[in-house]
Batch of 2 targets.
Target 1
Amino acid sequence: MFKRGFTIIELLIVIAVIAILMGIALPRFKGMQDEGKITQAKGELRTLQTAVESYYIHNSNTYPANIDGDLTDAVPNIIGALSPADAFNGTSKYGYATDGETPVKYYVIYSVGIDGDGAAAVDADGDVTETNGSSCVYVTNGATKDAQP
């Protein structure tokens, strides 16, 4: 009697098929992770934008010069701490830039984005410019709202 089993060729074909399927599936998982981080960043940025707008209402219609100290030290207390780390790098906080005017008229709150080095700036007309040549995710009270990476 012969023993039944798989030949080396059959095993190699099965391994090759599995490798091809993994090669197709892995990039899709990376894309889904990026989409999830974009959605997370947009949600957290909108929350921070709500806090900035609340600061504006409760502080004689002026926007904060920075969000790290101004929002956490505001009276009435708006937020206890800027706890959400940037969704894309997990270590730094979301960025905040103003138009440089006194009082502040326009602001932008941004995430570093998929590339991890994005930034944004806003000018006196409320126009947002992405810097570092990267697509970042941001919210602003200026002319451009909710940029898409």
Note: Residues 8-58 form the longest helix (51 residues).
Target 2
Amino acid sequence: MAARQADLQSLKSIAGASLFALGLVILFANLDGVGDSLSNAAGISAHEGLGILPALGLAGLHALQAYAFNPAGFLSGFLQILVSFWPLVLILVGAVVLRRARGRRLAMYRNPTGSLTAGDQ
């Protein structure tokens, strides 16, 4: 029974690490593409580091104006931005699975019989 629980915990650890890594890879790939498209849209090359700050300030003012005069359109655009960060869900799920698997594995090491107490389940 203890070996079966250890195998299950190992499988959960592998699944959690895989989800976490996959989410990070997809998120960074998306952010790289978004950064390239924003720099192309704003007309800023990667070497113009000082030009980014004014562009971000103007973009913030534009977002504030859109929120003030067209809240529905602003919220629609904000929802599209949030949807583009869906890999964060993979990262969060992977972190939760890893944390639970790690917590149960530590409980198994503390209790050498390999059985979990009712509070650990």
Note: The helical segments are 2-42, 52-69, 71-84, 87-110.
